[in-house]
Amino acid sequence: MRQIACLSVLGLVLSGCAAPKPILYPNAHYQQVGADAAQADIQDCMALAKEAGASSSEGKTAQVATGTVGGGAVGSAAGAVGGAILGHPGRGAMVGAASGATAGFLRGLFKRSPPGAAFTNYVDRCLRDRGYDPTGWQ
After folding, report:
1. What distance in Å separates the CA atoms of residue 50 and residue 66, rounded to the nearest whole number?
2. Where are the domains of the chain?
3. Which of 5, 22, 89, 123 would be 83's cystine partner, CB 3.0–4.6 Å?
4. What does the pLDDT read at residue 15?
5. Residue-wise pLDDT tens digits, 73-106
C-alpha cells in the first residue's frame, strides 16, 4: 500500500514537471526531415528562446500563491455554510479556510505551469523560419 502511494505521488510530481511543447503539423518539410530531426529542432529553438531571455514558464510562485488564496476563500465560504448548519459558522469557516488553502497550495505546486507568451512566440517563429508549421502547444 505504501509503495502505491509513493508511486502515485511520484507520478504527480513528474507530470507537474513536464514542460509543454509545440505540436507540429506534418507538412512537407516535417515529412522530409522526420520526427527525430523535428524534435531536435524544437529543442534547439527552445534553447535559443531561453538564451534570448524568454522564460519557459510563467511564475510558479504566483501560481501557487493564487491557488492558495483562492482555495482558502472557497474553503472558508463552504466551511461557514457547513458550520452554520451545525450551529458553529465561525469554527466551520476556520476549518474550511485551512482545508481550502492547503488544497489550493498543493494544486498550485503540482499544476503544470504554462509557457510564457514571449517564449512560445519565439519558438514558433524559430520553427516557422526552419520550415515547420507549429499548430499549438501541449
Report:
1. 26
2. 2-137
3. 89
4. 47
5. 776 677 667 667 777 778 776 777 677 667 666 6
Alpha carbon distances (Å) from 105 to 9, 59, 75, 124, 130: 15, 15, 12, 32, 41
Specify the pLDDT at position 45. 97
The C-alpha atoms of residue 25 and residue 33 are separated, in whole angstroms, by: 13
Query: What letter does residue 56 receive in the DSSP assignment?
Result: S
Partnered with residue 25 across adjacent β-strands are 133
Instruction: Report yes or no on whether pTM surpasses 0.90.
Output: no
Q: Helix (H, G, I), strand (E, B), or coil: what is residue 27?
A: coil
- Residue 36: per-residue pLDDT: 97
C-alpha cell at 31: 515529412
Using CA atoms in the order 49, 51, 54, 56, what is the torsion angle rounded to 10 degrees? 70
Q: Within the chain, where are the H helices?
A: 2-17, 28-33, 35-51, 60-86, 89-110, 117-129
The torsion of the CA quartet 41, 52, 123, 67, rounded to 10 degrees, works out to: 120
Residue with cell 522526420: 34
Nearest one of 125, 112, 123, 113 to 22, comparing CA atoms: 123
**Is the Cβ–Cβ distance between 40 and 77 less than 8 Å?**
no
The grid cell for 111 is 499544476
